[in-house]
Each structure stands twice: as structure tokens, then as C-alpha cells.
Amino acid sequence: YNNLTNIVMVVSPKDGMSHVKSVLVNAHYDSTMGSPGASDCASCVGIGFEVARTILMNSSIPLYGPLIFLFNGGEETLMQASHGFMATSAYASRVGAFINIESTGPWGPDVIFQHTDDWTLSAFARVAPYPRGNSVAQDFFEMGLIPADTDYRMLRGISEEASVPGVDLAFLFDGLAYHT
Length: 180
Fold this sequence. Notes:
- The protein is α/β, with parallel strands linked by helices.
- It is 28% helix and 22% strand.
- It has a six-stranded mixed β-sheet, with helices on both faces.
């Protein structure tokens, strides 16, 4: 984990619910070599900060448990930073579910393209204004047909015993703009 930086921000409810498991919102701020990294993943970091700002600035938004925002600096290098967070951070044991924002912005709707179970899909469908998902990418990832990966694999747990429920979100169209 040398020369990797994770930025962690915790937003806790005022009513003492800090003992409740947290929801982790993850986005990485590194990018592939030679890429400006706007959609993968600067826009995702912006979304994370905007969610945190909106919650902190609007006291009418209910917060039923803590939110942990992880902005990690090592996804494009084999998910080292998220693995380091899950393996060594004191906050990792507090994570009860996660949302990995993988890429967003160029064109098309953001969709769940990987998920851990039906519970995560149901939770997403209840709160998303326009919930969308597609299981094809998850099937391709699990069969090894896509020679890539995301922080999703690290966040869901570095062992089966430490499995954490969560979703992986990315935009649907314009794959050529993925790293631009």
C-alpha cells in the first residue's frame, strides 16, 4: 500500500445513531495513464462530495446511520487502495453496505451493473428516482470475459466471511468515453 492515499470522510447523525452500521460511498480519484479521468472517476468524486454537502447543509434530510465517504487513490492499479481500506482501516468494520460509483457522465443513465444480492437491488429500487440495472456486465465479470475490474470486488469483502452487501454503478452508453 505504499504511496497510496485514501481520503475518508464520515458523516454521522446528530441523534446518536453512530453505533449503527455505516453505508460506504466509494469513488476513486486516480485514472488510467494518459487519461484525464473525467468520467472514470473525477465525476464520481464530485458526486460523492455533492451528496455529503447536500446532507450536511440540509437538516431536513434524515440520516438513519453514518455515511462513510471513501475517495481512494488506487483503483486503476488493481484496486490497491480499496483493498487497503478494507484490510487495514478502523472504519472498515463499521461498513454495513456500500455503493461503488465506478463511472458516470458521458452519456446515458447510470445503472447497477454489479450487485451482491436481492436486498441491494430492492433497496436501490426503493430510493432511486429512476432505478436501472443490467445483469449482463456482472455475468461477464464473473466469467472473466471482461479483462478489467472495479473496487466493487474489494468492497464486497476480501473474504467470504467478511462479505458486505453493495452495488456497483456506472453509465450505460458510450464506452469509448469511459476513460475520457
